[in-house]
């Protein structure tokens, strides 16, 4: 059974003549063990797709089902619990707490979730894999854009979610780091049996993906093997 499904999703912004149809009859499913890319140019609806998939935003119509639960039928408290226990977000804004050091960002995750986290050894391996093990005593303001992005990835993965949703996780990274992140996401899917969904315009990640979808004009379709660059 798919761990996350979107069924006939539509999303509108605005009203009247200014109404914009951002997502149009979108159907999507992801299983554990899969790394899926959703690609498209800026403004195509990628981020809206991701936030709806993770329950951060509600669709205008259609259903989102996460771990067999219809998100629309849950209370706010139940939705928050579902996200906390099952969904890890890597958002484009990074959303790091500016007054917390890197190690405190991770400690905050432990205090909130408490159980089901990566082991200490696995966390250290993750920090090393991302090249940030020497940054744990630094504040976000002392980090480069690429370093900040990698800390945001580590924070999301420390919670050990079944579903990882990433919004442009390689936008600030050079090609070597892109490859490391691609390998990490692939390993999460295959070895740790996660469902990993990445929305991006960075086709350097395509070689690591099991499937690649494309959003154009609010419509989602499975992309053919031939790669394009945005």
From TrEMBL:
PROSITE patterns: ABC_TRANSPORTER_2 (PS50893). It is a peripheral membrane protein. The keyword tRNA processing does not apply. One of its GO terms (molecular function) is ATP binding. Keywords: ATP-binding, Cell membrane, Membrane, Nucleotide-binding, Transport. GO terms for cellular component: plasma membrane. It is found in: Cell membrane. CDD domains: ABC_MJ0796_LolCDE_FtsE. Residues 4-230 form the ABC transporter domain. The keyword Transport applies. The complex is composed of two ATP-binding proteins (HrtA), two transmembrane proteins (HrtB) and a solute-binding protein. Belongs to the ABC transporter superfamily. HrtA family. Part of the ABC transporter complex hrt involved in hemin import. Responsible for energy coupling to the transport system. This is Putative hemin import ATP-binding protein HrtA. It comes from Lentilactobacillus parafarraginis F0439.
């Amino acid at each position: 059974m798919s761990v996350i499904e979107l069924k006939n999703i539509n999303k509108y912004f605005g009203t009247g003549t200014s109404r914009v149809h951002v997502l149009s009859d979108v159907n999507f499913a992801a299983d554990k063990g899969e790394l899926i890319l959703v690609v498209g140019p800026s403004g195509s609806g990628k981020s809206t797709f991701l936030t709806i998939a993770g329950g951060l935003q509600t669709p205008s119509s259609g259903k989102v089902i996460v771990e067999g639960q219809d998100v629309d039928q849950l209370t706010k408290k139940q939705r928050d619990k579902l996200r906390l226990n099952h969904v890890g977000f890597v958002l484009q804004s990074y959303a790091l707490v500016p007054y917390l050091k890197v190690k405190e960002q991770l400690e905050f995750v432990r205090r909130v979730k408490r159980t089901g986290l990566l082991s200490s050894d696995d966390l250290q391996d993750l920090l090393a894999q991302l090249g940030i093990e020497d940054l744990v005593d630094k504040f976000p303001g002392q980090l480069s854009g690429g370093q900040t992005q990698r800390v945001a990835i580590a924070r999301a993965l420390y919670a050990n979610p079944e579903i990882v949703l990433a919004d442009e996780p390689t936008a600030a990274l050079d090609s070597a780091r892109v490859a490391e992140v691609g390998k990490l996401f692939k390993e999460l899917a295959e070895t740790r049996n996660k469902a990993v969904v990445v929305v991006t315009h960075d086709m350097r990640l395509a070689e690591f993906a099991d499937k690649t979808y494309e959003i154009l004009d609010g419509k989602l379709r499975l992309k053919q093997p031939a790669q394009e660059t945005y």
